[in-house]
Structures are given as structure tokens and as C-alpha cells.
Design brief:
By secondary structure, the chain is of the alpha+beta class. It is built from eleven helices and four strands. The two termini are 32 Å apart.
Length: 260
């Protein structure tokens, strides 16, 4: 067993364990596969779970169902509308998840050599195939690297600002809390950008990302504690959350730019 978190004995980033889905979420996943494969038999290349349901630690009523769809071609406007209608239909029928998210990739983009550290790593280590062509089998295991962290979370300034703007416009407390949880999780996972190139571990849980942030930049430890709490149980004024989110994003961007 490795002495470093998130990697195996050979120093490769750990893949998701092969284990049954939590019983509460298994019927939803089965219906998802059946519905999408029936409605989009040619368009759909493969379906993958990621996040808490894939890991087996989802919380009823608060966890999202995160799904990666790899499509054979870029969907037409009509196909995109039908995919969205299917997502909303499933979401309305299954209150055991707070939301269903579709992360969509096109086969040619997924297999492009320039996207190896993004899509290759993602499908190999962060996803479990639940239907169709398992592209993760095409990729060799990855070792920890800052290049992967940049490929996966280098978009954090735009993503966090998007969350901030949506929070300012959210009409309900339920929507605000969902956005706060998602933004807090993205904020913590983006801390992996502060890793040193020689670091051999790879954070997987939110707690491990918070620890990395506090260790790499002790001056940001207050943000680590704040976002860790908000990731599970949002509380306090939304305006305060948005202000902290934007301040953290700016500070993190400065630290990332300062790295060699």
C-alpha cells in the first residue's frame, strides 16, 4: 500500500473502486441508462458516473447525480433539447438526488491527444462506465502531476465567477444552497493547482483538498475551513458567500500565476 494519499503502491492515481451502487440510487441509475439508450441509441457512445454516487458516499436528498455523456457526434439543437428534457424528467421523478447534471463530451474531442490530461484522466480515474463503450480502458493509469490539475481545474476563475453570478440571481433558498454547495466544492478542488510538481499524493476527498490548501498556503486556511463547511451545509447570507468566493478566486489566481 502507498504511503501517499490517493495513489496505489505503484504511484498511480487510484481509480474508483468496483463496487455495487448504493441501493437508494441504483434504480435511478438503471432508469437513466434505459431511458437514454432507448431515446438516443446512435448518438450515445457511453455513459459514466462520477462524484459521490460513483464513489458510493452519496447523501440522500443533498447529493447530485453527476453523469458524463460521451456522444458520437456534436448534438443538433433538437437533440440537445431532447437530452435536456430527459434530464429534467428524471430529476423530477427522483427526489433522492438534489439535481442531475449532464457533463457532455464528443467522441472526437474526448480521444484527441491534446485532451489526454483532461478527458483521458477523467474517464480513467474519476468515472465508472455504466453503459456503452468504456473509453477509460483505452488509457494507461496516470501519475500525479500539476498538468492534470491544470487540465481539470484550470478553469476555476470562470467557473467560480459563473457560480457567483447565478447566486446573485437565484430566486429560491433551495437553488441558492445547491449553488453554494457546488461552488464550495469547486473552490476546494481547485486548490490542487497549488501542488508542487514533485508531490506524489493526489487528493480525492474534499477534506484532503482543504488540507492541501491549508498546507500550501496557510494564509488561505480560513477559506479552506469556510468552503469545507459550505460544501455540506450552506449557511449565512448569500452575499457574504459570494464576496468570499470572489476574494478567494482572486487570491488563488494570484498564487497560481506566481508558481514557477
Amino acid at each position: 500500500m502507498s504511503h501517499y494519499p490517493g495513489v496505489d503502491a505503484d504511484g498511480f492515481i487510484q481509480c474508483l473502486p468496483e463496487q455495487p451502487l448504493q441501493p437508494l440510487f441504483a434504480p435511478l441509475v438503471e432508469e437513466l441508462c434505459a431511458l437514454l439508450s432507448r431515446r438516443f441509441p446512435a448518438l450515445l457512445d457511453g455513459l459514466y458516473l462520477y462524484g459521490s454516487v460513483a464513489r458510493g458516499d452519496a447523501r440522500p436528498g443533498t447529493s447530485d447525480l453527476d453523469v458524463t455523456l460521451v456522444l458520437a457526434w456534436a448534438p443538433s439543437a433538437e437533440e440537445a433539447q431532447r437530452l435536456e428534457a430527459t434530464r429534467l424528467e428524471l430529476q423530477a421523478r427522483h427526489p433522492q438526488v438534489s439535481k442531475i447534471d449532464f457533463d457532455i463530451g464528443v467522441l472526437s474531442e474526448v480521444l484527441a491527444p491534446g485532451n489526454l490530461y483532461r478527458w483521458g484522466f477523467w474517464l480513467k480515474h474519476q468515472c465508472r462506465c455504466i453503459w456503452g463503450n468504456d473509453l477509460g480502458l483505452r488509457f494507461a493509469p496516470f501519475r500525479p502531476s500539476r498538468a492534470i490539475a491544470l487540465a481539470v481545474n484550470g478553469d476555476f476563475p470562470e467557473v467560480l465567477e459563473g457560480y457567483a453570478q447565478h447566486l446573485e440571481q437565484a430566486a429560491s433558498a433551495t437553488e441558492q444552497q445547491r449553488l453554494q454547495r457546488a461552488a464550495a466544492r469547486k473552490a476546494l478542488r481547485s486548490a490542487n493547482l497549488l501542488r508542487g510538481e514533485q508531490e506524489r499524493g493526489w487528493p480525492s476527498t474534499l477534506h484532503e483538498h482543504a488540507q492541501l490548501l491549508s498546507a500550501a498556503e496557510p494564509g488561505l486556511s480560513g477559506y479552506a475551513a469556510f468552503f469545507l463547511q459550505q460544501a455540506y451545509a450552506p449557511q449565512g447570507p448569500v452575499a457574504d458567500f459570494v464576496q468570499r468566493l470572489r476574494a478567494y478566486s482572486a487570491l488563488l489566481a494570484g498564487e497560481v500565476r506566481a508558481q514557477p
